[in-house]
Structure formats: C-alpha cells, structure tokens
C-alpha cells in the first residue's frame, strides 16, 4: 500500500507538472494534495514499517519531535488544500466568467504560501511546549508515530498548557463552511 500511495500520488504530480493543459487551478490543487500525501506517507510509514518488520522501536527525542511536527503540519495542510479546492469550485460555479481573473498564478502562489504558513504556525508552538517539559518516566509511546499528546504523557510535569494548546489549535484550525462567507452565500450576481 505504501508503494501504491507513493507511485500513484507521484504520478499525479508528474502528469500535472509535465502536461501544459493541466496547468489550471483545479489540477494544481490536486497536485498539491498528491504531493502532501506523498510527504505524509514518507513521514509516517517508513518508521512504522521498521517497527513491524525489524522491531526497530527506538527513536530519538529530536527525531520524534521532528516527526510529530511534520505529521501535524501535513495533516493541517491537507485540510487547507481541500478548503482551497472548495474555493476553486465555488469560483468555477458561481463566477465562471471571472474564473481566470480571480484564480491567477499569483493568487495560487499566495494560497499555497498561506496554507504552508498556517500549518507551520499552528504546529511550531506545540514543539516548543514539548521541548520545555522534563521527561523522567518510561519513554515508550503506544503508537507507530510520534504525536503531541503521546509525547506529552511521557513528561513528569504538568501538561495542562500542552493540553490547552492542543485543544485551542484544533478549534482555531477548524474552518466550517458557515464561517467562510463566500461558501455560505448563494451564487448571486457579483
């Protein structure tokens, strides 16, 4: 399944990159989603396979934090890419005559940069909150990858701030369509 995910998503990225006719916002967002999936697979699956196949169950604290950062950042960017794809379809359906004027190359670059910035800004505080904690208990994480609360539970200090941050980050990065004005409005004339 790992190979299929890598090959399939890599094929999507290569086809969109090489085929000039596919250099449109919808396909660019699809390629971004495929690239994000490739990165997410590369962050999680190799360590999980090493655990299952070779019993390589050890991971250094720094590598665990790096894995946690990338896992959470890629999950957040995936949801942001899906939101951008929804916006693309909204413009295509509700503003078809202005589609190419609204979704220019500059706009796509800004959307891409903002989704990366959103993901990084949401995840970086969690890494710093985990680094400040002292760890003196068992160092066994009951998952195949490192995640925020799994690491925090290993600390021998109060993790209330980490829990509050995790809850706040979950609420602040959630974007229901009712909060997003273009999607909640009808496709009336502009």
Question: Can you characterise this structure?
Answer:
With 190 residues, this protein is an all-alpha fold. The chain has one domain (2-175): Rhopdopsin 7-helix transmembrane proteins (Up-down Bundle). Helices cover 71% and strands 0% of the residues. It has 8 helices and no strands. The protein has helices spanning 2-18, 25-54, 61-94, 99-102, 105-131, 148-152, 160-172, 181-184. The chain is flat. 19% of the residues are buried. Residues 177-184 have low confidence and may be disordered. Residues 8-190 form the G-protein coupled receptors family 1 profile domain. The chain crosses the membrane at residues 27-53, 65-87, 107-130, 151-174. It is found in: Membrane.
* Tally of separate domains: 1
Query: Whole-Å distance between the termini?
Result: 46 Å
Identify the overall geometry.
flat
The count of helical stretches stands at 8
Oligomer: single chain
| Helix/strand/pairing category | mainly alpha
CATH class: Mainly Alpha
What is the name of the CATH architecture? Up-down Bundle
Q: Spans of 5+ residues with little confidence (pLDDT < 50)?
A: 177-184
Return the average pLDDT rounded to an integer: 87
Give, in order, the helices and strands: HHHHHHHH
Helix content: over 70%
Biggest sheet record: none
CATH homologous superfamily designation: Rhodopsin 7-helix transmembrane proteins
Cα-based radius of gyration, to the nearest Å: 20 Å
CATH names the topology as Rhopdopsin 7-helix transmembrane proteins
Number of strands: 0
Strand percentage? under 5%
Subcellular location: Membrane
GO molecular function: G protein-coupled receptor activity; olfactory receptor activity
Organism: Podarcis lilfordi
Protein name: Olfactory receptor 52D1-like
């Amino acid at each position: 399944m790992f190979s299929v995910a890598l090959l399939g998503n890599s094929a999507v990225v290569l086809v969109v990159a090489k085929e000039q006719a596919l250099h449109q916002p919808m396909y660019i967002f699809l390629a971004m989603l495929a690239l994000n999936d490739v990165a997410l697979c590369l962050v999680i699956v190799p360590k999980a396979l090493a655990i299952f196949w070779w019993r390589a169950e050890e991971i250094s604290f720094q590598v665990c934090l790096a894995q946690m950062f990338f896992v959470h950042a890629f999950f957040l960017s995936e949801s942001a890419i899906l939101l951008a794809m929804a916006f693309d379809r909204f413009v295509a359906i509700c503003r078809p005559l202005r589609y190419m004027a609204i979704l220019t190359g500059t706009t796509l670059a800004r959307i891409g940069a903002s989704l990366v910035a959103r993901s990084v800004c949401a995840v970086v505080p969690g890494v710093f909150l985990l680094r400040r904690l002292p760890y003196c208990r068992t160092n066994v994480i009951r998952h195949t990858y490192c995640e925020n609360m799994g690491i925090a539970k290993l600390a021998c200090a109060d993790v209330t701030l980490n829990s509050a941050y995790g809850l706040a980050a979950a609420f602040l990065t959630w974007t229901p369509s009712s909060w997003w004005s273009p999607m909640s409005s009808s496709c009336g004339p502009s």
